[in-house]
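Let's sit down with a protein and look at its sequence and fold side by side. Once you have written the record down, we can walk along the chain together.
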Amino acid sequence: MEENIGRSRLGKASNAHSSARRDLTANAPRPPPSKRGRRKQGPPQGQGPYDHEAGGSRSRARSRFGQPSVAHDDFDADEFLNEHAEYEEHEQQEEPPHYQPQYPPQYPPQQQQQQQQPQEKPQEQPQRRRRSRPQARPPPVDGEVYGGGPSDLSLLSEYHNHRAILIWEAASDDKEILERNLRCIASGKKVIDIKKPPRNERWFWGPVEATGLEPLVRTNFSVLDYGLIWAFVERWHSETATFHLPIGELGITLDDVQCLLHLPIEGKFLNHSRMTRDEGADMVNAFLGVSKKCAMDSFADLNGLYLKHTVLEAIYSDNRKNADRAVAENKPMHEIRLYRERCIRAFLLYLVSSTLFSNKSNYYVDVIYLQYFQNLTTVHEWNWGAAALVHLQHYLDDGCLARVNQMAGYM
């Protein structure tokens, strides 16, 4: 019997014969050492010492990379026969099937680490707490109206900030709202108390009357009805610039200003811009005779281009005394005229700052208005009535808000 009987089947090598298995086991190459991340390779099938006799496809065994395999005598047959049980890759665990990296390796490691971490729900940014102050409720939604108030809010868009809402919605025992008073700051009494020259001194009253501002000396009150003023402020609406009364809307017109205050309502509008402290000090020095150093000290003390009422009153009184002394000493006329013009400018600035342009401070005047008294013969050309109305409406717009407790302007 030939030795190759039973060693081939259909022209291919057969491993069914026991001797063939022994030869295959003895001559099979030892598998290369396992490497991390690479599947271990077993011996190529169908390659034994009788492949050339059995018509095998290869005359010699080759490894995975096409290099000749080297036979190892210490190869363990049990390890080869149980390759499916012993050669599983336990060194590297496979990733869960649901995990897929979202960034390729070329991205920065920080971004990869951020993507590997489970995504958390973004935290909401904490809202800044506002100061507690009396505020009206937010604007109503479409279809909602204020009880007892306007039903059409297309025009009164700022009604939710109005002080009338707090009063309307307050309880009968809410003293914090119902007993709150609006502080009205009026400086008209200072014009009454200031010492003025006699009416027969025409050098003073002649230029003052020519400016058109002389009626402000006679249109002031020593005592004001603050309750009445507050009632009107509560009914003012900045959107319409009118008072909303039970009888209808009532506004202040330029004709009212002319009839009540007798001020000019025609002419050039007051037009001024910001001024530096150096410019303000130069203007005070040229028009009022105050040294530049004293003016700068006053600006630094009040943190702006302001002069105190007491300082301006002292400038007015000193220049008046200097003018009378110059007349008594028979000084040159240009020197007398200089003192008189300074006296008139100081008085006019004091007059308009205590009436038309009064502010909430009640103790200082704004130097910016001094430039309109540079030439006393052209003061009447300015529209003082319109300026007074705009200034008053500005404070009415501010006073009708729920958060405001003070009211200023000419009252």
Notes: The radius of gyration is 51 Å. The longest strand covers residues 242-245. Strands lie at 8-9, 12-13, 183-184, 236-237, 242-245, 248-250, 306-308, 364-366, 406-407.
